[in-house]
Amino acid sequence: MALVRLPLFERRISLKVYQLENTNGISMRFMNYGATVIAIETPDSRGEMDNIILSLPTPHDYTKEKTYLGATIGRVAGRIRVGEWTFPLEKNEGDNHCHGGTIGFESRFWDGEPFQEETRVGVRFTYHSPAFENGYPGNLTATVCHSLDHENNWRTTYTATTDATTLFNPTNHVYFNLAGSKENTIHNHTLTIQSDAYLPLTAENLPTGEIKNVQNTPFDLRTATPLQAVLASNHRDIQQSQGLNHPFILNNQQHSAATLTHPDTGRQISIITTAPAVIAYTGNHFNQDFTLSTGQKVTKYAGIALETQQLPDAIHHPNFGNIILQPDQPFYSETTYQFSLK
User: Fold this and answer.
1) H or E stretch including 160?
2) Based on the structure, what is the number of domains in the chain?
3) What protein family does this chain belong to (predicted)?
4) What tens digit of pLDDT does each residue of 83-126 get?
5) Model confidence over 281-326: pLDDT tens digits?
């Protein structure tokens, strides 16, 4: 097990990159800008290594492109209708608040602290968000800890404290494509999500407030389902979003939540989380907007994000769970991604 701190990339504030490696050849790179994962290299069934997430060509590119690739999202992931709460929040997507504001967690420099233990190596990122940043009350200290162990588990933990009542619902926005550089879409992947219910969306990608059963719909992913079939569905909710962009309510927290597989390479990721929901987004709106580390322009369906979190816009739906953080109730959430070969 090894942790390597790569050379610093100097900017007005230092851009720092950290590399984690385990004895099985898995390598992960993170940077302090956005507490972002910028590469994950794993072997396929033939032992060939490749980066299995969508990445930009250089760390500097993340400071110039608003892509959210691999970034920590907060204070609140997803959308909040018309930025309404006790305090007005920034409206940065039409009339709504999205992903914590124009300059959210993904566009902040975090303090990085690498660590090494007997069974894992990691890096702990901390950010101090001042009161009323993007409208959120409370001085908040958020910590995101990424670690990699000998069993090929990437564990992400989120903790936070505040000195005043505020909102908090973080996630990570990594996009997976387990084919690596061999395929530029996720059509040939299969997806499993252990969920009996999903949330339909409005045209503004906000939950309608309904909770629908997945039975007899393309949202029934309780067994491995080809993404190609889901994306080709004529179901109204799929057509409106041009793919998946939907919250799924997980059947069991702290058990397997989702599994993504690429049969041709044999690569598989299993996700276990303490969060109550996962938002599956299939890159429906990618449109040659930026260049990836492969040298190709990003295309529609180039990757899939599986964002573990509380349900979006929960502040307006009492049955969606609680995202209010109190000074005497520290926040904790944990998600583990297990890399394997099927």
Assistant:
1) strand 153-162
2) 1
3) Belongs to the aldose epimerase family.
4) 989 899 999 999 999 999 999 999 999 999 999 998 999 999 99
5) 999 999 988 999 999 999 999 999 999 999 999 999 999 999 999 9
Q: Is 173 annotated as a binding residue?
A: yes
pLDDT, residue 256, reads 83
174 is in an annotated binding site: yes
337 is in an annotated binding site: no
User: 11 pLDDT band (50/70/90 cuts)?
Assistant: very low
Radius of gyration of the chain (CA): 19
Residue 153: which domain range? 2-187+280-341
The residues annotated with a catalytic role in the active site are 173, 307
The domain that contains 285 carries what CATH number? 2.70.98.10
Evaluate whether residue 143 is within a structural domain: yes
The DSSP annotation for 224-267 comes to: -EEHHHHHT---HHHHHHTS-EEEEEESSTTSEEEEEEETTTTE
Residue 212 lies in a domain: no
Is residue 249 one of the residues assigned to a domain? no
Residue with tokens 């084919």: 179
